[in-house]
């Protein structure tokens, strides 16, 4: 029975307790009988206060409590939760199930009941969340008195993502059918969020995704339409364009990324609100920190090498290929393998994202003097480096050799982005560095990467002959430093313009446009639970709470969402892609000519 905490699914739980189910039926009868008895006893109490009678009442009462506890336990062991209780991993992408063994069975059951069923109700009756009518009016007044800016260009892709359903619209049947690909279903009705859970999601993805939607509702009160959305929280798109039969409609499925060959609808991923497992902060804070870090060094002092740091063990062929390019003399490239297991132990101090833009270097110095003399000498020699640490290695590594090692750090000139198992959340941090981003032929797109234009705000690197292609980019940047710097700055600027305000606006418009296509009125399924801020926080552990609270929207926005540009001409997307392709082809030509000249 306790295996439940080990992540056994609901169905397995029911099978293994078949006998107890029988018991449970009997228990239910006993319960109602006892309740009747109790009621009767209560009214009879003043007339016959005998000793025997009290014993019977006390006994019944105790059994009732025991039974209640048993029932609650049983009920809880069948309740699916946003942190993954009683849910199995998605069958299309398995991962180790979560353990809930740190809590006792009863406290777990209590928590499940408390957070799933009681917290939102209590919050609603206390009524802190609902604005009064007066406040609402006032807010509307404010909202309409300011002219919102126009949404950035990439919002146009909302139309492309929803194109398949423009004419025929979306029916309940359609949503029902999409369930086979979904981990959960989100239904928003009158500003309330309901979630129907089918499978567990890795780490805290689901929690932070739901949090983002709750914040959206809070930011634009009364404005988010009723909607019914199927969602998958795993990485790879599944609705293949090629496999959608002629005349039939693709299934509408939301996830964090898509590709040109898929119909999956991209939605901002959880990391915009924080990723506590790897110490990534909410996007606005994280961007500020990265930008501040990047300004500590001027471009000219940055090191003229391409730099990648990350985890190659994620079933990503491109990351494996990248390992071969680790030669600063031959390819101008340095690859650092990130040891997640090791860093998890040290709280990810060394992999802090604001450090990601940095290039680390170890230097030896065996001149005379004190440690301070060494430091000064190294600093003078390098000028551009910020000295991080000095190790006096006499007594440690190189026994007998009086050298000292300095770990220095500077900004990388060129930052490589390599996709992981699918898209990688790291792209937005790499683009924020102010270094020239080298993107290795990305196959996946998330909601904002459609705004990227090769040579304008990134450099396109080919996945064929990868090392040579990176080397070419490095050489180009070294011979055209001001152009390379300008591209890096534009990428950083683009990421600055993608503030959380714009992320919420994107969610708002995507949901609104999608909702217009529904040919039915959304109703939460009977198995769905309401999720509110309080219930979500109720499930969060201390660290998650800290991250969630930091990314909370403080109040309704006084400015309305940006204005969505009218639906573009259908040719727009073809032309856009053709133009991108042309620029990339042009870079490939330059590369080929350069290679031909060498050989
Ligand atoms: C869950 O617990 C089991 C047994 O204690 C352990 O073998 C497994 O690795 C744990 N899984 C996770 C994801 O921590
Ligand atoms: C959708 O599925 C639910 C449960 O699976 C069912 O009750 C409902 O009738 C279905 N709706 C349609 C329109 O098929
Ligand atoms: C769909 O139609 C196109 C032509 O309109 C045809 O080439 C293709 O084979 C069809 N695909 C399927 C799966 O029927
Ligand atoms: C790449 O080369 C550097 C310097 O030789 C080395 O420190 C680093 O561990 C190498 N990275 C990988 C992933 O092998």
Describe this protein with a few key phrases.
599 residues; alpha/beta; Rossmann fold; seven-stranded mixed sheet; 44% helix; 12% strand; globular; binds 2-acetamido-2-deoxy-beta-D-glucopyranose; CAP10; transferase activity; transmembrane helix; transmembrane; transferase
Q: How many E-type strands?
A: 13
Global shape: globular
Instruction: Give the ligands present.
Output: 2-acetamido-2-deoxy-beta-D-glucopyranose
Percentage of residues in DSSP E strands: 5-15%
Structural class category? alpha/beta
Number of spatially distinct domains:
3
| Weakly predicted, low-confidence segments | 1-45, 128-135, 383-402
Major sheet summary line: 7 strands, mixed
Q: Which CATH first-tier class of the largest domain would you pick?
A: Alpha Beta
Written description of the protein model:
The protein has 20 helices and 13 strands. The longest helix is centred in the last third of the chain and has 28 residues, at 571-598. It is an alpha/beta fold and 599 residues long. α4 (105-126) runs antiparallel to α18 (533-539). The protein is globular. α14 links the parallel β10 and β11. Helices cover 44% and strands 12% of the residues. Strands 6, 7, 8, 9, 10, 11 and 12 form a seven-stranded mixed beta sheet that branches. Strands 3-1-2-13 form a four-stranded antiparallel beta sheet. A two-stranded parallel ribbon has the order 4-5. The protein folds into three domains: 2-121, no CATH class; 122-128 and 147-267 and 499-568, no CATH class; 298-496, Rossmann fold. Bound molecules: 2-acetamido-2-deoxy-beta-D-glucopyranose (4 copies). One 2-acetamido-2-deoxy-beta-D-glucopyranose is lined by residues 172-173, 176. Belongs to the glycosyltransferase 90 family. Residues 1-22 are annotated as: Disordered. The chain crosses the membrane at residues 51-70. GO terms for molecular function: transferase activity. This is Glycosyl transferase CAP10 domain-containing protein.
């Amino acid at each position: 029975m306790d295996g439940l905490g080990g992540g056994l699914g609901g169905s397995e739980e029911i099978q293994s307790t078949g006998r107890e189910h029988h018991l449970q039926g009997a228990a239910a009868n006993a319960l109602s009988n006892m309740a009747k008895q109790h009621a009767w006893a209560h009214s009879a109490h003043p007339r016959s206060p005998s000793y025997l009678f009290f014993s019977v009442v006390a006994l019944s009462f105790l059994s009732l409590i025991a039974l209640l506890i048993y029932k609650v336990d049983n009920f809880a062991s069948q309740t699916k939760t946003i942190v993954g209780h009683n849910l199995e991993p998605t069958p299309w992408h398995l991962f180790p199930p979560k353990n809930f063994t740190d809590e006792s069975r009863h406290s777990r059951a209590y928590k499940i009941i408390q957070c799933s069923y009681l917290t939102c109700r209590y919050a609603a009756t206390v009524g802190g969340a609902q604005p009064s009518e007066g406040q609402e009016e006032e807010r509307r007044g404010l909202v309409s008195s300011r002219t919102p800016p126009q949404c950035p260009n990439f919002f146009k892709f909302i139309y492309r993502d929803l194109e398949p359903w423009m004419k025929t619209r979306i029916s309940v049947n359609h949503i029902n059918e999409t369930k086979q690909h979904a981990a959960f279903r989100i239904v928003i009705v009158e500003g309330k969020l309901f979630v129907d859970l089918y499978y567990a999601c890795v780490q805290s993805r689901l929690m932070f995704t739901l949090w983002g939607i709750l914040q959206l509702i809070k930011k634009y009160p009364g404005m988010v339409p009723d909607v019914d959305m199927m969602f998958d929280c795993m990485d790879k798109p599944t609705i293949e364009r090629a496999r959608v039969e002629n005349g039939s409609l693709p299934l509408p499925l939301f996830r964090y990324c898509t590709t040109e060959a898929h119909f999956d609808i991209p939605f901002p991923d959880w990391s915009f609100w924080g990723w506590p497992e790897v110490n990534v902060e909410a996007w606005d804070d994280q961007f500020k920190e990265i930008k501040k870090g990047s300004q500590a060094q001027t471009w000219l002092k940055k090191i003229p090498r391409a730099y990648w740091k990350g985890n190659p063990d994620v079933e990503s062929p491109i990351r494996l290929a990248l390992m071969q390019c680790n030669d600063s003399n031959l390819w101008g490239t340095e690859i650092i393998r990130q040891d997640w297991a090791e860093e998890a132990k040290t709280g990810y101090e060394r992999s802090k994202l604001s450090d990601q833009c940095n290039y680390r270097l170890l230097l030896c110095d065996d001149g005379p003097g004190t440690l301070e003399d060494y430091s000064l000498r190294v600093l003078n020699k390098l000028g551009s480096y910020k000295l991080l640490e000095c190790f006096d290695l006499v007594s440690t590594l190189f026994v007998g050799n009086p050298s000292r090692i300095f770990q220095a750090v500077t900004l990388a000139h060129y930052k490589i982005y390599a996709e992981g198992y699918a898209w990688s959340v790291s792209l937005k941090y790499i683009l924020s560095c102010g270094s020239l981003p080298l993107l290795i032929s990305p196959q996946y797109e998330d909601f904002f990467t459609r705004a990227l234009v090769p040579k304008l705000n990134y450099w396109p690197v080919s996945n064929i002959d990868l090392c040579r292609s990176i080397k070419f980019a490095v050489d180009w940047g070294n011979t055209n430093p001001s152009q390379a710097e300008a591209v890096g700055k534009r990428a950083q600027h683009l990421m600055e313009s993608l503030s959380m305000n714009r992320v919420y606006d994107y969610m708002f418009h995507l949901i609104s446009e999608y909702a217009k296509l529904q040919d039915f009125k959304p109703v939460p399924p009977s198995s769905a639970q309401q999720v509110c801020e309080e219930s979500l926080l109720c499930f969060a552990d201390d660290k998650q709470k800290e991250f969630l609270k930091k990314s909370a929207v403080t109040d309704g926005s006084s400015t309305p969402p940006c204005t969505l540009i009218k639906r573009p001409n259908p040719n727009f997307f073809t032309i856009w892609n053709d133009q991108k392709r042309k620029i990339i082809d042009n870079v490939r030509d330059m590369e080929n000519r350069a290679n031909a000249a060498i050989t």
